[in-house]
Amino acid sequence: MDLRRLRGAHQWPRRANRALVAVPLLLILVVTVVDILAPPDVHLGPFLVAAPAITASFGSPRMTAFIGVVAVLAQTIVAVMRTSLTDLNHSFQITALILISAFVTFFAYRRERHERELTQLRSVAEATQEVLLRPPPERIGALRIASAYLAAEAEAQIGGDLYAVARTAHGTRIIVGDVRGKGLEAIGDAALVLGAFRAAAHRQAKLPVLVAYLEGAVSSDLTDPGPHRNQRIDRGEAFVTAAVLDVPDTESALQLVNCGHPPPLLLRDRRVSPLEVSQSALPLGLTEFARSDFAVESFPFEVGDIVLLYTDGIIEARDSRGAFYPLAERMSSWPGGDPDALVRYLCGDLMAHSGGSLGDDAAMVALQRLPAAGA
What we know:
The chain is of the alpha+beta class. The chain has ten helices and eleven strands.
């Protein structure tokens, strides 16, 4: 699941906007006819101001100006039919209508300019996501994989959550992580971790060595005195939680190093169990304050099993009553299928639980063990 599927969602409102222009035109027609037929002491002309004002809320500046011109012409017809153009009352109404139409046309121009900027921002976010969070292949080695990223900020589309998959000579390595904080610094830190993982995942023979390399990359960047670092943030508050997995092709097991991240969930026969390590390492970037041994623990991972890696934006999502999202419970109630079906199910269920918006970014990666080739 990626942002490219959202592109069509921004196209249908344009077609709807063209259909909505019938509303101010109908309003102008009704007000004009009723005003002409009304008694001499009844004046409905001021209601015509609503036509360009309504159009400015959804239409382009050109459309808004067009509706304003139509409204002015309608008021002119009313003036001719009822008295004359030189009538003081109608003259003031026409003048006021022209001024207000000009104002709302300018506001429509500002709104359209802002929408163009948002569209450009979405395009940049899409390009950024495609570079940083490259969707993993549906199948790699002995795994079938699916992933999703749900951004808390609708216009940002990407933040400090991260995931990546790398192929090695004997298996597949996966990382899912969460950078503390938000904004550009979080995106930069996520890019740093992803770059380090992709550079070293296939070169480091041992998983602890790989995690130590990631720790060194994060720690060295946090001590960089460059101007991009906010000096008001305490060094102890800058870190990255991460779960790093190594899935061998020929073994029915997986190896896990957990650096302060929520434990992955194993789904087997509709039963969900967390892959809790006995010794969790410190988050990346905190070894300055305490030594951390990146101990590896193994867990059974058999054919047909699905492991879900996720960030805390999922389990910390709340509903209208403040209840957290019960991820393990919802996984166990999933009717079954491949990892892509599971990810789609959880994304839809999560958004329904949280009322359509998240308080924090959320990412998930689902892995399913496949039968060995030729089995």
